Fold Nlg-1.
Amino acid sequence: MNSPLLSLLFFFSLHLTSGQELSRTVSTSWGVVVGELVSPGTNDLPPVTQYLGIPYGSAPVGSDRFNMVKSAPKWTHSTKETKTLFASCIQTGLPELSETKAMRLMSSQRFDFVHRILPKLKVQSEDCLYMNIFVPERLQSMSKLSVLVIVHGDEYGWGSGGPFNGTTLASYGQIIVVTINYRLGPFGFLGRCDSSSCRGNEGMSDIVSALTMLNSIVIDFGGDHTSVTLLGWGSGASLVSLLMASPITNPKERLFKRAILLDGTALSPWAMSEDPQGAFLDLAAKLNCVTEESKKSPSALYNGGMDQVIKCMQDHSPQNISNAAQTIHAPSFLSSFAPIIDGQFVPNKPSLLFSPQYGNLFRDIDLMVGTASFPSHHMMGDEELKNGISAEKRNKMIRTLVRNLYKFHRNEIMAAILNEYTDWTNPKESSRALRDSVLSILSDSLFASPLIRTLRAHSSDETSRNSKTFFFHFGHETRSWSAEQANSGIRGSFSGDHIPYILGYPLSRKDNDEKLYYGFDSDDRGLSRVMMNYVSNFVKSGDPQMPTKMSKQSQMEETFARVAWPQYNQMNREAYLEIGVNRDNPAVVKNYYRNAHVGFWSGLVPQLHAAGKEGVTVPEEHHFLPDYFKTDSFYGDVRPFGGRSNIPIPPPPMPPTPPTMVKPSSPSPSSSSDQSPSSSTIASSSYSTMLSLTVAVGCGLLALNICVFFGMYRTCMNNNRGKKKLQLQYQTYSANHGQNPDVQYSINSPLALPPPPPSSNHSQSLMDDVLPPTINGIICGSLPRSNGNSHYSRGTVSSHTYTTTFPHHHHHNHEQACDKHERDRQEPLLSASQKTSIAGIRAGVSPTCPRHGRTAIANAAASRGNSLASGATLGGSTLDRDPMRSLPPSSIPIEEIQSFIAHSFAQFLHSIESINQWISPIESMSSNSVVSLVVYGVVAAFGVIINVLVLISFVRGRLASSQYSSIYILALQTLIVDVIFITIHLFYWIPKAINPDFLSVEGYDSFILHLVDSIGTYAWFHNALSHVFISSNRFVVLVFFERSFFTRRRVIIMAIVHHFLALTITLLTQFAIPCCRLSFDFSIFSYFNVPNGDLPNYSDIFFTVPVNTLSTVTSVVCYTTIFITVRRERTATKSMQISDAKRKSEYSYALQFASLAGVFSFCWISFRVFPFIIPLSDPNLVWVFGLTTVFTMVNCFMNALVYLVNNKDVQRNLSSLYGYEPTLIQPTTMHTVSSVGMR
């Protein structure tokens, strides 16, 4: 990270100076402390100043024993030397130290570790509340350092923070590392209750006191009190998770901001004391502080005698208390002296404190969770681990687990466990296979399942949150450790194997006697740098990949530098990083860690454990296992039968109601064991409701489409009735005004119109040839368009100037009338084709007749209008209506629509009110991800614009009406679906990839995501079927010349069938079929199929692949045949009776639509192929998955682009929209346009 040369020079210069130079003095609000500058044990890292033994609490002795800690007194008038470790807290639960006995109870790895740490635990005292601070020397000027506080673990009865050296991690990560001691066993977790309250979390009060003091003094060491992270393993992780949800850690602002849990959580069965009152009475009885009679009937203690018992216990020596505690054995896999629900530090059950309803404090903390392959490895004896176990021994261990963890239906639960963990491909399992199954059972039930439930609760999308969640599986094996042990066949990491790699022990070159861990090779050192980089980054930013990039000092680091570690959430399919399981590929991103077994422990077992229906009495014997009272049929210590006493311990208070309650939603697979037994029914009901709602919406849309197409059909039929009148008028007009075949006109010239008819008055005819047309005496063409003056004098014709003066309020109506007159004069057929013709013109009369034609009647109508209301008639008469814009009056309530739009817009603004919600996620993304998002956004925005422009042209020009090709109907509905599909990308999927909280609705995020996925799936299948219809149309028109096949009635039927098929396939693949619906993966910006356990992908097998294949095969066959036919049959133009230009145009359309089909084929083929050829673990290649998304959006707007570039109807309508004069189309071409296929 820093320059090794600078580090060496710096440290070498320190050794050349006097010994006093190796000290560092810091003045704090508590007093002055003097630390010692030491080397982290490796030459390429800067030195670290360690301050050992800083007191944070006064000695809890005498009357302070078994009570909350008091803050340490200040030493402002003296200097405290902090260069040596102080005593550890009293160890009341050390494992067995005799090798013969220990090897029957624990693994050899755990036995070796206990003996390595034991010398550092020999000095024990109640005066043990100290912290050790490791501050790195900063070679460059930096901001304040983030802080990592290590809460040691293993078990609640033994351990210490002092033996763990934080110098290497502090130096490498450039963070401040703090280790602390806290009271253990009965000194820290003596739970007891009386009639008013419960007490017993003194060990947690020690940690809170240390954090409170650290927040006050860490700034003096160059630290940032707003960036504190807690790290714990085992029991320490359980305490950290409880502090995440504890209101004690939030007096004004949180005492810490992030947390790292390693193989431990408060949801584990061993994390909380199940019988604190019983353990308290047992300890008091062994100290002779209560009589046996009081122990059997402790009502007097409960009603006020508790203080006397506590005072008696405080009079005993710590050694007596420790010896008495060691004789109290908790039931196997549980804890006697552990945290309890006291209403203060632990307000309620952890499952409730972590829930979305009451987990605001818990979810406010950034969380990283890690686990080893076999975290329960230390719970089995060494001989059993080496050689395996028998079926009888396996059954004993499972019986003990079931009896101690569950109260109801134990036989059913045990049968389910045996069934779940039996290898049915080889039912006669070997002794090692039986051992492996027991290891898996213990690891899953006591560690993995509770950890996954914690992760799911923290990452739940039921309520909005700003915190991050990450999960890793550490599976690396240390070769030297494996070589020391017999080849047991167990592959993977064991209990606590990740601790030395996180603390940097493989990099240290100190003597083995000074270290807790040793025996590492080069791969281990590279992996240690990786782990320290991840942890230090998380401490600084909450993201293990930011802000410091992975160095490339070793091959191991280069491998991890190429891997993007996604967050753990439902949208990322519960992604996690697998570390070191495979040495050839040590960094792999996977999904759904041990999902089947986790679902078993968090879903099925809690349902089996339900007490039963209310009002139904179940005999107590029903819950007994066979040989229930034979102690030799169990393994270890078991829970005693019945209760010790019936003391009504005060129930814990309910957590405060959060500001916004969450709507009920279907329970996730992480449901806790105390959930209602009807959770599966609720989930099924919610799913059925969702399915019913989606089916209803789909049927409604289908009915709406049918009504729309039926209305369009009726309108087209009505328009067909007016064709004869149009043809008669045109024939009469052509007969009276025949064109001169000898004169050639340009199509864009006004002279292309037929000449005006001869007038009865020759002088009037001459004036018409010279003067501009007039309406009501006003010269059309002489009116200025942009001047607001009330008088105008402009327009010179043939050296004569005509000046007309008129009031300003008549200007707009006169201008419209002149525009209309000019348009009618240039395009007589366009006006004649309107449904609403000018009253008074009889059939067979020329529209230009001076006495009975259009101009004469217009003048008469204008005169009548002027006599009634000034300017009213000219503005609203039929003469002034634009035939391209004439629409029926709307009956839609405009105010309601405006209100709805305003409300929706306000909701949209509310969802993006904080700009940090968008900037922060983008800053944490890799450069490839940012570039990919920009590309997606640009392509999607361009696609929306192109499609909307063409849709406007379709609507404005009424291209789906009867006078145009009927294939425009299919094109119109395809364009609409394309717009919807691109809009989903632009306004939901892309923003959601940046900010997971975008458009989040409490309790309905999963429903919204499912609904959007269904709409996207519908658009996908609609697109696939569109290529089938388009290629078939081109094939029929260009190969068989059957232009009459695609009649309007047939095309409408095809459109309805098109929608019906796409909707039906969508409902089947997204809801009816159990696996696997299509969704969007925000981590790779592409589509994926949501798995459902081990079920095969039926959606792909029966629908998705067949439909996509049909689309591609049909397109290939049709377009290949078209190209061959057109190339070979040069005379096909004559047989179709259209021009060579038209033939080339049709062929050009076929080429373009063939390219569309090629793009679509690339989309779905790449969607299938990329996951097999591109590793998800390589961040430099993950962007390739996004090509599928890009080409899908390109496919959605290429159809519109073809129309925009080549189709004259679309171009003309868009030109008229922007005020350009539309190109004139001769009447004879109208029949050609309507008879040709898709434009």
